[in-house]
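pinned: reference chain
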Amino acid sequence: MDKSDGSYLINIKVGFEVEVVQKPHQRTGELTTGIVKRILTKNSKHTHGIKVMLQDGIVGRVKKVIH
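pinned: its C-alpha cells
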C-alpha cells in the first residue's frame, strides 16, 4: 500500500500536509493543499478518499498525503 494514498485512514494523521478535492471541485479535480485539523471519515478505507477538515476550515477528500 502506498503511504501517500488518501483512501486509507491509516495513512492520515492530524497535522499531516495533504492535498484534498473539495465537493464543488470534484468534476475538475482541482486540489487544495493544507494541514489536517480533523478526520471526518470513521471507516478505515473510502474509495474516493478519507474526508478531512483542514486547519483553514476547508472540507474535502484526501487525494494525496504529502506529510
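why pinned: The chain has a mean pLDDT of 95. The first strand starts at residue 17 and ends at 21.
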